[in-house]
User: Fold this.
Amino acid sequence: MKTSFECEYEFDEVRVLGEGLMAFGTATLVHDGGGEFYVSTITLTGGTHLKRHVGAGIGSVFTKRLFDMITAQIENDEHAKDFFLNALEEGSAPDPDRAYDERRDHAAMGWVA
Assistant:
């Protein structure tokens, strides 16, 4: 049984600072268990990875602040919320192929008529 759900969300033009500094990339949206999501990781276009929990140090403080600024916008964005809810709904739907395979296997074993 799947205990958590996550999906990848591509974002562009997330304002980081003023009018000139924008972020582009992919965020991993994770189900919080209550119908909402949070961002666990961000991969900026070009390959820089940002994550929720970082170590200590000056670079880490900057990375954490950048992650927080991008995350706040994604988690409050209506498009991201709709995207996540649709992905969650699709991910929760039963797989018709698996159901067919199980019925076929059970019938072959004589468990069902």
Q: What stands out?
A: Strands lie at 6-17, 21-31, 37-44, 49-51. The first strand starts at residue 6 and ends at 17. The CA atoms of residues 15 and 22 lie 5 Å apart. The radius of gyration is 20 Å.
